[in-house]
Amino acid sequence: MALKAAVIMGSDSDWPVVKKTVAQLKAFGIETETHVMSAHRTPQEACAFSENAEKNGFGVIIAAAGMAAHLGGVLAAHTTLPVIGLPLKSAQLDGLDALLSTVMMPPGVPVATVGVDAAVNAGVLAAQILALTDPSVKAALAARKQEMAASVREKDARISLEASEI
Fold this sequence. Notes:
The protein contains 6 helices and 5 strands; from the N terminus they run E-H-E-H-E-H-E-H-E-H-H. It starts with a strand and ends with a helix. The protein has helices spanning 15-27, 43-52, 71-77, 96-103, 119-130, 135-164, and strands at 4-9, 32-36, 58-66, 83-88, 112-113. The chain is an alpha/beta fold. The model has no long low-confidence stretch (mean pLDDT 96). Strands 2-1-3-4-5 form a 5-stranded parallel beta sheet, with helices on both faces. Strand 1 (4-9), helix 1 and strand 2 (32-36) form a beta-alpha-beta unit. It has one domain: Rossmann fold (3-Layer(aba) Sandwich). Helix content is 48%, strand content 17%. The radius of gyration is 18 Å and the shape is globular.
């Protein structure tokens, strides 16, 4: 059975960024569940979800949050599954607060952290984790790498041609 990815966001206002993560996971053929849970306003639900995530078929959890951004740490404290933190920009500190809150975890409670608003990378990192046990996800990742390389080669050829004509 293929493992699922959970995408948890602290607020529905996070959805415009987080939907890029969900789209990325689905592009790799990964079954995904998306929920709004708050480390501060619904801590019992967040803890219960995380505690039961593995038995419910999840292989990785992505936690998207802004400002204090404690969601990733709360989820990581209640599971042995890998948790990926997606810090989100805020009006006050442009996401630096969320980045530091997500990445600066105490020993023994890691949260793998991507850049501020780096929703695509959160999806790719989750896919790389799930690819360790899912050959179809591994193949999709390899195909994506080949597509990216082909795109760079095309751009290189175009720029080289333009530069030679100057």
